[in-house]
Amino acid sequence: xxxxxxxxxxxxxxALAQILLxxxxxxxxxxxxxxxxxxxxxxxxxxxxxxxxxxxxxxxxPLIGFGHLLYQGVRDAVDESGLLGLFMGGLTASATxxxxxxxxxxxASLIFRPKMKD
Length: 118
Fold this sequence. Notes:
Layout: H1 2-23, H2 28-44, H3 48-55, H4 57-60, H5 63-81, H6 85-112
Helix pairs in contact: 2-5, 5-6
């Protein structure tokens, strides 16, 4: 049942983002920011933890989960370091995922030889 919940929740999040792309004039970057901010706001209202427990990877893998991760990192760092935690918490919490994306993106560019669009 965990896989089914992850599938339909993750699919619903992606479908809503696709509807925003198709039905509005919002650029993809703005929709990505909306998703990240939505995850952070839901975390601030203590709603996201229950949602992530129910949906698992369907809630934590899309960009909405990145906002949740950033908020958690900032919250923990502020509790630990005070005001300085505002600046270092999000980066500390997301460093592994960001590093992996950069490393694998670089490796893919070495293997597939990307070209500029004409």
